[in-house]
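User: Design a sequence. Structure:
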């Protein structure tokens, strides 16, 4: 055997060993498993999840916040082709009162597109990468990278306005009680954590309402073979609205959503 042939065989063997090792690691490591990712948002025609939803909205020109309570039900309808030509699941959302005493009324339609290593959701014409490999605690990605400035409203603070810059972070597994359900394996993805960040309170003021501050918090929780079981999104900004040297008329802008699963099939 010539030295050239021996060299080629050695290089090929090294490449094959490396390839097989990486392939085996990918197949055996659940962090890189596309099947494990798909389990966190299972999709099949007729699948549904019912949630309790608390919607927090400013009232009286932002002088107060009000919580409005509902039930919503998300039902997977069928597979369609999205605007980019990809197979996508169409999901119908229905709304009822908080005790589901009335009839279910159509509320919205959104789309879920599984793409192997990530899962995209288009809701209200906003495209978000909800989940992405690897499923490793502290792994991050720009889940809102497709969104424009002010996608959730016009805020003064960049942390609420520049939603495209939020770092989605895998927080890992935990045991949690969601509504009346106890789960051994809950996977949490946090998007933003800037609660009650007071920027400035005027000298001599004893009321935090006189300061400019934000409440920014966003996270979602998933359970394998169940799907999204909880979601929280708070984007509230307090405007001091200084009238003169001694008087303020503060008001708040933004909104909040708290939802948790109460039923599924």
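Assistant: Done.
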């Amino acid at each position: 055997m010539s030295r050239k042939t021996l060299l080629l065989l050695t290089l090929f063997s090294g490449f094959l060993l490396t390839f097989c090792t990486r392939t085996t690691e990918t197949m055996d490591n659940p962090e890189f498993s596309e099947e494990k990712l798909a389990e966190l948002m299972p999709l099949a025609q007729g699948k549904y999840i019912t949630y309790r939803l608390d919607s927090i909205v400013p009232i009286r020109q932002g002088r107060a916040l009000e919580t409005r309570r509902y039930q919503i039900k998300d039902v997977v309808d069928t597979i369609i082709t999205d605007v980019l030509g990809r197979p996508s699941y169409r999901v119908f959302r229905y709304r009822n009162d908080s005790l589901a005493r009335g009839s279910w009324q159509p509320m919205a339609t959104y789309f879920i597109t599984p793409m192997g290593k990530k899962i995209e959701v288009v809701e209200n014409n906003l495209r978000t990468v909800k989940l992405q490999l690897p499923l490793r605690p502290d792994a991050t990605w720009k889940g809102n990278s497709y969104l424009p400035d002010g996608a959730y409203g016009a805020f003064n603070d960049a942390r609420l306005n520049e939603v495209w810059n939020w770092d989605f972070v895998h927080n890992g597994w935990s045991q949690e009680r969601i509504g009346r359900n106890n789960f051994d394996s809950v996977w949490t993805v946090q998007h933003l954590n800037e609660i009650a960040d007071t920027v400035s309170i005027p000298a001599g003021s004893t009321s935090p309402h006189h300061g400019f501050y934000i409440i920014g918090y966003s996270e979602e929780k998933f359970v394998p073979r169940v799907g999204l079981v909880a979601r929280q999104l708070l984007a509230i900004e307090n405007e001091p609205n200084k009238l003169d040297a001694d008087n303020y008329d503060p008001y708040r802008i933004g909104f909040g959503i708290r939802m948790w699963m109460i039923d599924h099939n």
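Helices lie at 3-28, 34-39, 158-161. The mean pLDDT is 88.
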